[in-house]
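Structure ticket #2291
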Amino acid sequence: MAALVQIQETPTWKKLLGYVGPGFLVSVAYLDPGNLQTDLQAGADHKFELLWIVLVGLTFALMIQSRSANLGVVTGKHLSEHCKAEYPKKVNYCLWILAEIAIITSDIPEVIGTAFALNLLLKVPIWAGVLLAGLSTLLLLGLQKYGIRKLEMAIGVLLMVVGTCFLGVMVHAKPDAGEIAIGMFVPKLKGHKATRDAVALLGALIMPHNLFLHSALVISRKVPHSFHGINSACKHFLIESGVALFVAFLINVAVVSASGSVCSDPELSFNNKAHCNNITLDSAAFLFKNALGNWASKLYALSLLASGQSSTVTGTYAGQYVMEGFLDLKMELWLRNLLTRCIAIVPSLVVSIVGGSSGAGTLIIFASLILSFELPFALIPLLRFTSSKTKMGHHKSSLMVTVASWLLGVCSIGINLYFLGASVMGWMTSKQMNNVGSFFTGVLIFPIMMAYMALLAYLTLRRETAPAESPRWATYTVGTNEIEIQSGSSPKMVEEVEVDDIVST
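Resolution: structure written out below.
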């Protein structure tokens, strides 16, 4: 076997470029229209004071997304496949349904954001914009047949469009750089409203479907099946994800800073102040137009179009992996795309026809509540699998990373549950709902919350099932060197071992 080994030395920069792509595809979810609306409102209400929340949130996102990437690299299977192998059939069906609901829900702001952008740019009716959003997404996903790299490149271009447009708006708004730095690094929460907006800002960052998607995307790369080859791949994916999320962080900062600068202007007109009190994806365009000029409104609409299109592509892509992993459902690529797109687009289309732009805006808020509810059902299995010796072997998360991940995970789940509970209680006690309605709503919600907490406890405390065959490593000698390679690998895999994968004895 040793005679088959061909030692190849690859330059570091070239090796890193080979891993670029999945992190940028995933980072799009941190810039979807739902996040943009939350950022705009945070800036309008608190100027730059909540920028530190964005920094903390995306730092946490990097840790969680790197766990997802490591799961795919080490095991060669993505998160939904591990769930199918680990849990009983009934639990798996529950997790699959919840994952599908999360994907459909995350797609709602993206489709509606695209429809708003088309309305602002081309005066297309909202319902027609929803249909066009679905069609254009299918066309973008058609790039898959030319290879995943082409799709990643297209999404990267859309990401740069979002960043460039908002950077232009921010520069013209002229925010104070010193105040931005203070807001970014000095934690501050003034009043109950600031706490509520901070919770909303954190809750909007981590998307459940992103955890399924990242673990699947990394499998598209050719990773050496050696111990050090896998370590090297995990390191390079961490760097790539860090760069991608740093770009996403800068764009989020630009969005918050633009609205914060415009809405804190003492010369702001009465109408614009009304827009600042309740910013929607639609009204933000009029705010920027009145405050900065017509070109700022067009730039905003263009960035919203790029954001909606890129994030809806990644959501649909995640849906393919979820359906394939949980159900082991094999079907033609175009059929999977069409099915996933149709399931996701129906709620947005119905609401936009019945309720118009105001109904569509309300649906975005409702979607954020559902995503807060859904997150633990992807996050808990991911944290359990990546800290498991039976799943990850020698590559399981270290004790420090495991503790930090679980602490941040519990905090994130607690924040989302707080946000969800506060919103539901506020709705039940509002003057718009009578006592009878509040009673029946409570009767309906209570058993749902009990079932919710029971499933969370089950996923957290359930004893792990050992895999059929745990990873084993065999050692092959080449001269005075040794190669550690996963047992069961083919001779072709051994031939592709690089210099970095060889351990001197």
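Closing remark: Residues 1-7, 472-476, 487-505 have pLDDT under 50 and may be disordered.
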